[in-house]
Every structure is written in structure tokens, then in C-alpha cells.
């Protein structure tokens, strides 16, 4: 077995006991973002496996998109990352915002 040389840490232990490594990260050319892949990227950044800057570059994400993922995971857990359920977790907008 050969290990690819990576800078920084190889693995991290998550608070729930799972171990996350670079091999658990989604591929760079990912087109379909499901909740589990979003969660892995956010956890990798949060716990130091991947820097935020490198995650944004590697996955071609905007800072706002990544921040939305972080907020959804913080506020609602992995279910908050599901696009099909996003309307259940978003704050209702005020009338002034709808008319703008």
C-alpha cells in the first residue's frame, strides 16, 4: 500500500468517533453535491484536515456557498444540507425583502 504525500495532517478524529482522511473527501470534479459530501467538506475544514481556502479552490465554491453549508450544518445538522428540505430550514423573509 502506498500513501500519497500530503501536506498537513493525514487524518482527523471527529467528536463522534469517526476518523476522516483525505481519501474520504469528494473528488475535485464533483458535479452533484449531496448532503453527505457537503458535510464531509465542512467537517474537514472545521477540524483542520483541509484549509477553507484550499476547499474553495479545490471544489470551485464561493465563500457564500460554503458559509451557507456551514450555517446549515451548525443550525440543523446534516439534514439541513439537503436541498429538497431547504425550505423547511430557511427563515421566512419579511414582506420588504419579497418586494425588493
Automatic annotation (TrEMBL):
The protein's name in its UniProt record: DUF1153 domain-containing protein
Pfam name, any one: DUF1153
InterPro entries to which the protein is assigned, alphabetical: DUF1153, Trp_repressor/repl_initiator, WH-like_DNA-bd_sf
Taxonomy of the source species: Bacteria, Pseudomonadati, Pseudomonadota, Alphaproteobacteria, Rhodobacterales
